[in-house]
Specification:
By secondary structure, the chain is mainly alpha-helical. It contains three helices and two strands; from the N terminus they run E-E-H-H-H. The model has no long low-confidence stretch (mean pLDDT 80).
């Protein structure tokens, strides 16, 4: 979905609807932007958690790159999924 300033089209439409209805108060905009900031913070947290889980797997893969057999199957994901 396209975004402007990190807002989805639906979020922009919501703010524009407030403007059209002359309800574009600072409080109304604040509440919507506050919800967006909270959503962004939650996404950052989830991405950081994923990052932290992937780094050890990446390091394990890198350690096995020098395996003598180039057809050797990577078992890193198998170990982490079990």
């Amino acid at each position: 979905m396209k975004t402007a300033l990190g807002l989805t089209l639906d979020e922009i439409k919501d703010i524009l609807a407030l403007k059209d209805g002359r309800s574009l108060t600072c409080q109304a905009v604040y509440e919507r932007l506050s919800r967006k900031v909270q959503s962004i913070q939650e996404t950052i947290h989830k991405l950081q958690t994923l990052h932290d889980e992937l780094i050890p797997l990446l390091e394990q893969c890198h350690a096995r790159l020098d395996h003598a057999d180039p057809t050797h199957q990577c078992v890193v994901l198998e170990k982490s999924l079990n």
